[in-house]
TrEMBL record:
Residues 75-182, 208-306, 359-472 form the Plastocyanin-like domain. It comes from Solirubrobacter deserti. NCBIfam families: TAT_signal_seq. This is Multicopper oxidase family protein. CDD domains: CuRO_1_Tth-MCO_like (cd13853), CuRO_3_Tth-MCO_like (cd13900). InterPro entries: Cu-oxidase-like_N (IPR011707), Cu-oxidase_2nd (IPR001117), Cu-oxidase_C (IPR011706), Cu-oxidase_fam (IPR045087), Cu_oxidase_Cu_BS (IPR002355), Cupredoxin (IPR008972), TAT_signal (IPR006311), TAT_signal_bac_arc (IPR019546). Keywords: Metal-binding, Oxidoreductase. It comes from the Bacteria. It holds the Pfam family Cu-oxidase_2. The keyword Cytoplasm does not apply.
Length: 491
């Protein structure tokens, strides 16, 4: 068994820039390996995280430059669509109540924009407004005022221009955003080291140029964590880490299993769970996030698998090793981490009076459609009232699985195929398998404006599987319902 590189394997402290510097040094020496060249002997590469940009005294200011360029990606120099020259882009770290300012500089030859997936902020103006385009060569200043009662957890940012979003995301343009909880700010949860794992599945031609996405790539062998193929993470026996995992692929459902370990899930889609969920396999749809506690077992080497995933219509992704956990012996006995400070109660939306029910159908007859229609950004498909509690049943009337995602407000899944389920928290993206129905409840809280719900397999949404909803003030003479306690805030 190969030995990890360092005593504790913790070369991530060296940081992203250190790796970039080593890559540059290799490039300078003329020893850079190109895609298609004979493989060197296998070596252990430690997981490297993107650089973090933290808020300071309630403010976070970041410039994100999006451009297509060569960068060091999956062990070689290849073309990518990068934020600030790296894949993935930098991780933004802020707190509820902060003002986040992002200057987006578009150095692509096509329009782009920025979707802050999982943010509960206004859908218009210069906040999470995916209806705007930032033209090639243009700059746009976004401002996100994160509500004080915003859930703490893992969110992410990525381009969302209609028709070209897939190409940019498939090319690597994505980054994580962490909102810290009060417990984390106080340090009560700091005993668990926290890692960001951005999952992507790009593919390149022999010359290192990006291939365009095609459904056939589901069977390919490229699955990356933070731009690395099978990076290693080293923990001491009994040590616990919090892994914040985002599925930033355009079309892969990740079913994660860590050999020899059970995973303790504590949050989904940036929403803390009310109780822990012990599981062997964590499912993360495209666009989704999972936060898990990993407690290292006996010393040894364990594979983190992406298990085969059935997309329907004969498309099945292969079983791949995404990363490897090296557990090192430790004489020091370690107590299990108390997960309680990481959990939050939430308002069970089944207990609230319902204002409206709707059925939304995803289909593939005559195109990738939402409710039988192709996307039209000038048409409003559903008008909802501010403060309304609604129940939506999402029906997949097609042969492929589709991850349903809605912007601005998360939801609580209540039924699968009409059968009740008890969820431990809210989500913003849910897998709907072929011929399946998912029923969810949501509250259109705090913000009016127009936004989108769509399939988060972005090639499907680029082809039209997108609906438009508008949140309007309540009808004449009706006051908006007060926001239920525990919806996007503490009980
Ligand atoms: Cu889809």
């Amino acid at each position: 068994m190969a030995q990890p590189q360092t005593i504790d394997g913790d070369v991530t402290r060296r940081g992203f820039m250190g790796v970039a510097a080593s890559a540059a040094a290799v490039a300078g020496s003329g020893g850079l390996r190109h895609w298609g060249a004979p493989s060197p002997p296998p070596r252990v590469e430690s997981l490297v995280e993107p650089p973090r940009i933290h808020s300071w005294r309630g403010r976070l200011s970041a410039t994100l430059v999006i451009e297509e360029r060569e960068c060091f990606w999956a062990g070689a120099r290849r073309t990518a669509v990068t934020y600030n020259g790296g894949v993935p882009g930098p991780t933004l770290v802020a707190d509820p109540g902060d003002r986040v300012h992002v200057r987006l500089v578009n150095r692509l030859s096509t329009p782009t924009n920025l979707h802050t997936h999982g943010f509960h902020v206004p859908p218009g103006g210069n906040a999470d407004n995916v209806m705007i385009d930032v033209p090639a060569g243009g700059t746009f200043d976004y401002q996100f005022d994160i509500p004080r009662d915003h859930p703490a957890g893992l969110n992410w940012y990525h381009p969302h221009p209609h028709g070209d979003g897939s190409r940019q995301l498939f090319g690597g343009a994505a980054g994580a955003v962490i909102f810290r909880s009060e417990a984390e700010r106080r340090g009560a949860a700091a005993s668990a080291r926290d890692r960001v794992l951005v999952l992507q599945a790009p593919e390149w031609a022999a010359d290192g140029s990006l291939k365009p996405w095609s459904a056939n790539l589901l069977a390919s062998q490229v699955r990356l964590v933070n731009g690395q193929q099978n990076p290693h993470v080293a923990l001491k026996a009994g040590e616990t880490e919090r892994w914040r995992i985002v599925n930033a692929s355009v079309s892969d459902f990740f079913d994660l299993r860590l050999d020899g370990h059970r995973l303790t899930q504590i949050a989904a889609d940036g929403n803390p769970f009310s109780h822990t969920v012990e599981t062997d396999v964590v499912h993360i749809p495209p666009g989704g996030r999972a936060e898990v506690l990993v407690r290292a077992g006996a010393p040894g080497r364990y594979a983190l698998h992406a298990l085969p995933s059935d997309h329907g219509a004969g498309f099945v992704s292969p079983d791949l090793v995404l990363a490897t956990l090296d557990v090192l012996p430790d004489r020091r006995p370690r107590r299990a981490l108390n997960p309680q400070p990481l959990l939050e109660p939430f308002c069970d939306l089944r207990t609230l009076p319902l204002d409206k029910q709707r059925t939304i159908t995803m289909s593939m007859t005559g195109g990738f459609k939402m409710d039988g229609k192709l996307f039209d950004h000038d048409r409003v498909d559903h008008v909802v009232e501010l403060g309304a509690v609604e129940e939506w049943t999402i029906v997949n009337d097609s042969v492929l699985a589709h991850p349903f995602h809605i912007h601005v407000n998360p939801f609580q899944v209540t039924h699968v195929n009409g059968q009740p389920v008890d969820e431990p928290g809210y989500r913003d993206t849910v897998t709907v398998h072929p011929r399946q129905s998912i029923t969810l409840r949501t509250v259109f809280a705090d913000f009016t404006g127009t936004s989108l719900f769509h399939c988060h397999i972005t090639p499907h949404s680029d082809l039209g599987m997108v609906g438009v909803f508008e949140i309007v003030p309540p009808g004449e003479g009706r006051a908006p319902r007060p926001k239920p306690p525990g919806f996007l805030c503490r009980l």
